[in-house]
Amino acid sequence: MKIVFVYPNLTRLERVTLGLAYVASYVKSRGHECEFVDYTWGGGPEKTLEKVKSFGAQVVGFSVKSGEVDFCIDVSRRLKQETNATVLWGGVHPTIAGEDCIKLDCVDMLCVGEGEEATAELLDSMERGEIDTSIKNMWFKKDGKVIRNEIRLLNQGLEDLPFPDRDLHNTPLYIERSGTVDIIAGRGCPYQCTYCVEPTYQEVFADKGKFVRYRKVENVLDEIADLQRRFKFSHINFVDDVFTIDIRWLREFAPLYKKYFKIPYTCNARIEAMREESYQLLKDSGCYSLEMGIESGSERIRRTVLERKMTNNKIIEAFDLAHKYGLRTMSFNMVGIPYETKEEIKQTIELNRRLRPTSVLVSMFQPYPGTHLHDLCKENGWLNGKPIPYSYFLYSAVSYPHLSADEILKIRRRFRFQILRKSQLLKSLIVLFYDLNYEHFVKFWDLIPRGVKKVAFSYFKS
User: Fold this and answer.
1) Residue-level pLDDT at 31
2) 185 and 138: one domain?
3) Of the residues 125, 148, 171, the one at which a domain ends
4) Alpha helix locations (H) across 206-275?
5) Which residues on neighbouring strands pair with residue 36, listed in sequence order?
């Protein structure tokens, strides 16, 4: 069977989709053919239509995020009007909002949860001439009814999966800007952050096996070696949410990575789980930068709203230890959190000044479907009617009696400037210009020379 995978990526961030790449490599291993439509580089519905028609695809699989639903609907409707292809939606949004997705007339079926085996079994059955509507993780429409199949057991042997299909993307083009390749070492997150879909995932996959899973260290290293043979890159980004929380895995990984590779890498660190040994292992093995979530400088907001139990002292200790071991740092922050006051936003700014991160990222809180805070905002009438944006930085989808969506956007635009203006005036002014004009940069992204993008990217990461 022939399947076209669609990567909407409306943010235009030049990052590969490892989820689709894993599914593609798995279905290829079962004898099926794949093509890929990548909207990282722009385009409209015609881009997918042309690929589906020229390739002769029987199935079109979309990876759908909440902020990309409207775009995926537009493309799917065109497909139903102009082709005979079956439209399959999978990814985050169908997993947490399946009922909303399956009722769409342009969607034939859903993949809920991990997609490798389910997609392969679907294509196997279609190749035999009849769709098997009992496939686990799949939802089907039949005779005016919806068939919602049970969730299969979670894959506990991630190292048994073929490496993600890097040929699916134009990998050299992705590497060109920053010299970086993305790798994921595991799946799942054990935390209960109220702004994130992971707690909902934990409910979906309850009693389906261990939720947080790591690949064997040797398997991760084998993938890096394979990438080295095929591509020229100078940096690795481990995209796991919880790369550092299993200290035993990290103790095994660090010396072996140091032994076989001299490639600097970046990873996300969960502050609550970090100890001094963690920083030492990371630094000694080649890590040069840590990304750590603060979210709010208010302990009240973190504790009672976000379910982030760390204290300000623990956050300060984490960044101080990173500096002690010579690691660069990026802080993740949010503004516009439910119940957050302007004074508490100032506390977030002040905490960042104390932390002295190498770089700062600030997003606007978004009430993603399937999260506890979405339900809270809906119950209190704080959803302002705007759809969830495809980017955290475009606008706010909430308005509060004490803080409007316009005020939240204004605060976000000046957030980084307020942190940097006293210590790095020139950089603060450059950041302010970018943040004030973010929407224009996104709109005209394709017109910016790639060399300029590369220089800018390097500057803001330094």
Assistant:
1) 97
2) no
3) 148
4) 217-230, 247-260
5) 5
Count the domains in the chain: 2
Residues of the chain with pLDDT under 70: 445-462
Q: Which token pair is 38?
A: 């990548």
Say if residues 235 and 263 touch (Cβ distance below 8 Å). Answer: yes
Contact 400, 382 (CB under 8 A): yes
Q: Report yes or no on whether pTM surpasses 0.90.
A: yes
Residues 6+ apart with CB under 8 A from 427: 420
Three-state SS at 443:
helix
Give how far Cα 98 sits from Cα of 88, 90, 269, 284, Å: 12, 9, 31, 44
At 240, give phi and psi (nearest 5°): -60, 145
Q: CB-based contacts of 144: which residues, under 8 Å, 6+ apart?
A: none
**Beta-sheet strand order (sheet of 235-238):** 180-183, 235-238, 265-269, 287-295, 328-335, 359-364
Tell me which residue range forms the domain holding 128: 2-148
Where does 39-171 show beta strands of DSSP type E?
59-63, 86-90, 109-111, 138-142, 145-148
**Number of residues in the chain:** 462
Residue entry with tokens 């095994």:
252
Residues 263 and 327 in one domain: yes
pLDDT tens digits, 116-155:
999 999 999 999 998 999 999 999 999 999 999 999 999 9
Please report whether residue 295 resides in a domain.
Answer: yes
The residue with tokens 């095929």 is: 230
Q: Are 193 and 308 in contact (CB under 8 A)?
A: yes
pLDDT in the model for residue 462: 45
Q: Are residues 225 and 351 in the same domain?
A: yes
Separation of alpha carbons 35 and 347, rounded Å: 48
**Residue type at 69 in one-letter notation:** V
